[in-house]
Amino acid sequence: FNAAMNSCARRVCWEQAVSLLAAMVPENVRPDAFSYSTTVSAAGDGGLWMVAVELLKRASACTAFQPNAVLRSSVAGALEKGLCWERALESLMEDRQRGLASCLPLTSSAVSACEKSSHWDFALRLFGSLTHKDVTAFNSV
After folding, report:
1. Residue burial 53-84, b: 16+ Cβ < 10 Å; e: rest
2. pTM attached to this predicted model
3. What pLDDT score was predicted for residue 72?
4. SS3 content of the chain, % helix, strand, coil (to 5)
């Protein structure tokens, strides 16, 4: 399933990736973080940030695993592509409230979403809050 979903993601066939994810449960195959990350990436590349956020909610409800940094970063990337700077900031705050470790790619995507939406003040505040800055973070501002 994961290989097929990955193939769909590379071709931006988000509908097929979502269908494959849904087909896993009836086949007694548990989706994992990679299953969700791949499908979220496909949705984000297709400009469907709302689908990406919904998939994160579904993944969060799973008892088999907790959404990891890769999955959270995939959602942040979808929000960035959709210029959803407010939702990206909400995601960061939700992660912090849950006590999840700060994720540099997630924060960089939020910074970039703010910048692309002409909200420089938020972008600079987020950038300033990073304890570790790398090339990706600097390029986001």
Report:
1. bebbeebeeeeebebbbbbbbbbbbbbbbbbb
2. 0.75
3. 83
4. 75, 0, 25
